[in-house]
Design a protein that fits this description.
- This protein has about 200 residues and is mostly helical.
- The protein has a domain of about 140 residues: Endonuclease III, domain 1 (Orthogonal Bundle), CATH 1.10.340.
- About 50% of the residues lie in helices and about 0% in strands.
- The protein contains 10 helices and 2 strands.
- It has a two-stranded antiparallel sheet with strand order 1-2.
- α2 runs antiparallel to α7 and α9 packs across α10.
- The longest helix is centred in the middle third of the chain and has 17 residues.
- This is DNA-3-methyladenine glycosylase I.
Amino acid sequence: MSGPVIGEDGVARCPWAGGPGVMRDYHDTEWGQRVHGEAAYLERLTLEAFQSGLSWSTILNKREAFREVFAGFDAETVGAYDEGDVARLMDEPRIVRNRLKIEATLTNARATVALREGEGLEAFVLSFRPEVPPAPATTDEMTTTSPESVALSKGLKRKGFAFVGPTTMFALMEALGIFDPHLLGCHRRTSGIIEG
């Protein structure tokens, strides 16, 4: 079992953020904190898809380049990208060059625009918030999927989204602060209910 670890600064954190660097910075300032707006949701959906099979630090280190090449995750702009843009992105060394994930980003941008006719991406994702959020004390108690992430995955696929499997959607829910993902005892852990 692995509970929170005490860093050299004397602060208790989730084990993956124990040492200084980009992962700790992300843990302390962003992971599990609620964000708002379509672009913020599309960005995190995109980054979680690109992270699949890679380390999260790799994605964080390329994040600014992702933001640049995907126009700040403006859904209309990215949704209008064509094969020429895919080719350009495949030649871009500052991002992860995976054709399927790049094409999925374009697909998801178009699906995000289509969701505007209904509740919009943010409200749609939030509608899958768990009634009883997890409260793990150790990494052994953590899961990588939930009934809600399975339902969100199915819901987004029905809306035309790609690369939105249940594990990726669980990570998305953690990242967006749909529930507090921090271990009990971590200095970032709140009451488990994040409002807003």
